[in-house]
Specification:
The structure is a single chain. This protein is mainly β. It has one domain: 2,3-Dihydroxybiphenyl 1,2-Dioxygenase, domain 1. It has 2 helices and 9 strands; from the N terminus they run βαβββββαβββ. Strands 1, 2, 3, 4, 5, 6, 7, 8 and 9 form a 9-stranded mixed sheet that branches. The radius of gyration is 15 Å and the shape is globular. The two termini are 29 Å apart.
Length: 138
């Protein structure tokens, strides 16, 4: 039996080319929409949308022509592209994943995230699952 990993679901990451359409939909669903934030470390604009009974959604949209969303949005105008998990200890969580036999590759090492009070976020491509973000909360 695999060891349980110390990761807790935090939010879904939605990459969009037209933010107004995404906001129209989440508002219709009753989400509260946070302030728009530009994150120079991630090179994207971000809006965190929260709901009392549904998962939080981080709307991500590009600013720079050659930013991280350029390829992602090349063939689609919107895509739910990552799942974010939070942890109190990134190294411990990564070791748990590895010892459980989960294969993953770091695609973006930890960087302070403005949207999350400068707590570090990092991204991993998990074999058989897809892209995850890990938010380390101290």
């Amino acid at each position: 039996m695999n060891e349980k990993c110390d990761l807790t679901f935090d939010h879904l990451g939605l990459a969009v080319s037209r933010v107004s359409r995404a906001l129209d939909f989440v508002c219709c669903l009753g989400y509260s929409v946070g302030a728009e934030v530009f994150d120079p470390e991630q090179k994207v604009n971000l809006i965190l949308c929260k709901h009392d009974n549904m998962p939080a959604i981080e709307i991500i949209y590009k600013v720079l022509e050659n930013g991280p969303l350029t390829e992602i949005l090349k063939h689609r105008s919107e895509l739910m592209y990552h799942v974010c998990y939070r942890t109190k200890n990134l190294d411990k969580s990564l070791n748990q994943l590895q010892s459980s036999g989960v294969r993953f590759v770091c695609v973006s090492p930890p960087k302070p995230a403005i949207l999350f009070e400068k707590n570090p976020v990092s991204f991993y491509l998990v074999s058989g699952f897809g892209l995850i973000e890990i938010l380390e909360i101290s």
